[in-house]
C-alpha cells in the first residue's frame, strides 16, 4: 500500500442548494454540506471534522439530523443510482451505520429527508414532477411504505414529520400540500386540498396541529389540522441603507424608484426558507433578509417583530449586491440563542437572538467569507503558514492553515486565473483577465504595487529564492526580476498553451508543459531547452518535480500518471477510468499525491508500480484544480471547482520522519503603509486626548458629586439625629401607655372568661334538648319507609304479569302474518314457472328466425366477396404501376428538396455576405466622415499656423525696426557724450563748473531712464524667446506621446499574434485594437484616391511645419544675437560713463584745490565771509562735500533708485505675461498641433 496517509483537518467552503444544508448538533457545533460530504464545525474553538461521502460521490443533495442529534441522514448523487446513507455522530469520527437501497424507487434524486420524533423512521421525498414519498425503517433497511405524489411542475419539494406524532408526515411542493398517516404498511392522505393550488417552496411545524407554508408569490399560509386558518402576503423588502439613500435627494429618489420598479418586476417576493422556534417562526421573503414573527392573541395570529439583514461585504467591488443573496436554509441552536442561515452563494451567516430589541438588525459571518465559484489558483510560502487562493468570483484570499482563519480578502473588477506567493509571504502575483499584478500583502489590505501587460495569464510562479518570477503569456513564458521588474528572458518553443510551470529547488532549471503534449526542461542561464519529451496524443494539465529535479511527474487527458526522466517516459500508471487533473510530490520524494476529475485524492508510494497500489480519499464535489505540499511535508493543500479548499495532515508511515512543528519557526512580520501608520498614530493621539479630556471631566464631575453628597449626608445626619431624639421621647410615652393598657386588658380578660363559662353551660343544655327531638323524628321516618317499600313491591308484581300477557298476544299476531306471507310466496313461485316456460318458447322461435336470416346473409356476402376479389386483383396491378410512379416522384421530390436546401443555404450565405458588406459600407462611410472631419481640422490648424507665422514675421519686422532705432539712439548718444566731454574740458579751463554741473546731472538722469527702457525691451524679447521655447517643448512632448502610443500598439500587436492559432480570438483582439486606436491613428481604407489625398496633405503639412520651424529657429538666433549685442553695448556704455564721471569728479576736486591755494596766496582769506555772503551758491556747488553729498546719503539714494527700478520692471513683466497668456489662449490649437 501507499507509504503515506492523509487526514482532512480543515475545510474552507460550503455547498449550496442542499435541502436542510445547515443544522446544529450542539450549542456551538454546526453541521453543513461541504465538498463531497459534510463538515462539523465548532464556532468557538474553530476545529473542523469532515464526514466524507460514499465512493464516487458527486456531492450531497439533502441531509437531515435526528431530533436526538445522534444520527445523520445524507442523500448523495453517486453514479447512475442515488445513495441514502445514515451516519452515527456519537464518535469523534462519524461512522456509517446503514446504506438504504434505492432500487425500489423509480426516481433517481432524493431532494428532502426527515427523521421521525423517535428517530425510527426516515422519510424521503424524490424529485418532482413524478415524485414519490417513501418511509423507511432505516435500522432494518426496510421500505415501510411508499406513495406517488404528482406535482404540477418542477420546483423544490420538502418533507417533515409531526414533532409529536411518529406516523404523521407533511409534504409540500409545486401545487400540493398533503398530510399522510402511516398505518399497517400504507401512507393514507388525511387532508383534502381546497382552493387554487399554490407553489409551496417550504414549510415548518409550529405545533402538533399547525403547519406554516411559504409560496413563490410571498404568501404565508397557516394550516391547522390540514385546513387553512390564517394567511398573509409579504412585500418585497429593500435594505434599510438603500431606503436612507432614497430620501437624500428627490432626483435620486425618482431614479431609484424606477429602478426598484424594474427590480420588483423581475424579482417578486417569495418565501425561500422557513424555520420554527418557541416564540414563533422565521422566514425569508426576499433576498438578504430574514423576518421574525411572534405569536399574538389578536386576530393576526402571528405578527412581525424584527427583521435581520445580511451585511454588506466591504471587500466586494459591489457591496450592495453582496447583501442581496437568496437565503436557502434557516436553523436555530438548541437553546435558540443563535440563528444560522446559508445562501445561494456558498456563504454562512449567524445572528445572536435577543441581543438587541431594534426593529432592524444585521447578521455576521459565521466564520469568514468563502469562495462562491471555482477556485483557479492556489499557492503557499515558506516563511509563513499561509496559502493564497484566487477564484472566478474575482476575489483573492489569504488563509492561515495553522489557525484555520482567513487573514486577508479582496475582490477585484476582473476574474483571477492564477496566484503565486512570494517565499517571504509578503508579496503575491495574481493573473487577471486584463493584466498581471504584483501585489503587496499589507496588515489589513492588498496593495497593487506593479502591473504587467500580460493578458489572460493562466499560470505564474515565484522562484524558490524569490528573486525571479515566471508568467505565461499564451505559449511564451516570460521571466521577470522581482527586484527590478525587468523582463530577463522569454522562453519560446511551445506550440500549445502552457498549462503548468515548475522551478527546481536551486532555481537553475525550469520545467513546463502544454496542451500539445510537450514537456520541456529549460536552462535559465542560457534561456534554452535542455531536454524535451513530446507525446501529441496527451494534453498535459499539471506537472511536479522531485527535490533534485531529476524526475518529472505529469498528468493529462490520457488517464495516466507519467514518470519522465532523461527526455523519455520511464513509467505510466493507469488511472482506472478517471482523469488525473493535478499532481504533487512530497519533498522527501517517497509519496505522490494525485487529484482526479471526480474530486478524489490519491496517495501513491514511490517508486511507482503498475498495480492498483494507492489510497483514495473522498473530498471534493468537483474536479481538483490545484494541489501543493507544504515545505515541511506536514500538510497537503487542495482546491477544486466546487469552491472548497481542503487542508490535509500527512502521516508518513515509512521510515522517513516528517519535520516537527518545533523545528521551524514561522515569521511574524507584516507590511503596513506609512499612511496607515500615520493615520493610526493620529487616531491614537486623538483618542488619548479624548481620554484625558474625559478623565478630567469625570474627575470634575466626581468632585462635584462628592461635594453634593457630603452636603446631603450632613443634612441627613442632622435630620436623623433630630428624628432619633423625637422617636426616643415618643417611645417612652408609648411604653407608659402600654403598661396602662396591659392592666386594662387583664381586667377585661377576667370578665370575658367568666362570660364564656356561662355561655358554654347554656349551649350544652340547649344541645341536649335538640338531640332528643331529633331522635323522635328519626324513628317516625323509619316507620314511613317500611310502608313505602311494601307498596312498591306490590306494584312491581302486577307489572310483570301484564308484561307476560302482552308478549303472548304479540306472538300470536305475528305467527298469523307469517302464514299469510308464505301462501303468497308459493303463488308467486308458480307464476314464475309459467313465465319461464313462455320465455323458453319465445327464445326457440327467435333462434330459428335468426338462423334463416344468417343463411341468407351468408349467401349474399359470399357473392360480394368473389366480386371484390376480382376487383382487388385489378387494383393490385394498378397499385404496382402507381407505386413505381410514386417512387420516381419521391426521388424527384428529394432531389428538389436538396436543391431547395442548397439554394436556401446559398441564400443565407449571400444574405450574411450582404449584411457584412452593408456593415462594412457603414463603417467605411463613418471612416470617410471621420477622415473628412480630421482633414478639415488639419486645414484649420494649418491656417492657424500660417496666421501665427504672419504674426511672428510682423514681430520680427517690429523688432528689426526697433533695433535700428536703438542703433540710431546709441549713435546720437555717443555724439552727445563727445559734446559733453568738450563742455567739461571748457568748464575746467574757464573754472565755470558750478554753472555746468546741473546740466550734466539732468543728462545723467536721462541716460539712466533710457537704460531702464532698454532693459525693459530686453526683458520683452526674453519673454518672447521663452514662449517660442515652450512651443518647441510642447512639440517634443507630443512626439514622445506618439512614441509611447506606438510602443503600446506594438505590445498589443504582439499579444494579438499569440492568438494566431485561434481565429476567433484573433478577430476579437483585432477588433479591440481597432476600437482602441481608431481615434488616435490614421485608419487605412481601400480607397486609393483618399489615400493619395491624405498623403499629399500630410506632405504639405510637414513641409509647412519644417519651413515654420526653420523660420522660428532663425528668429530665435536673430533675437539672441541682437539681445547679446545690445546687452554688451549697454554694459560697455555704462562702464565708460561711470569711468568718465569718476574722472570728472577727480578733475573738479583738483580744480577746487587750485582755486583755494590761489585765494590763500593772494590774501583773499580776509574777505572770505563777504564772498560767502555775496556768492553762496558758487561756493557750495564748488565744494567737494556738496558735490558728493555724504557717502551714506549717496548709497541710500542709490538703493532707493534701484528699488524703484526693480518695482517698475516687475510691473512690466506682469503686464507682458498677461499679454502672452492672452495670445497663447487665442493660438492654443496652433501651438499644440
Automatic annotation (TrEMBL):
Placement of WD repeats on the sequence: 368-409, 491-532, 617-650
Sorted UniProt keywords: Coiled coil, Repeat, WD repeat
Superkingdom of the source species: Eukaryota
Gene that this sequence comes from: CFAP57
Coiled-coil stretches noted in the UniProt entry, renumbered to this chain: 724-927, 963-1024, 1091-1161
Domain EML-like second beta-propeller per the UniProt entry, residue ranges: 376-650
Any matching Pfam family: Beta-prop_EML_2
UniProt name for this protein: Cilia and flagella associated protein 57
Region (Disordered): 239-261
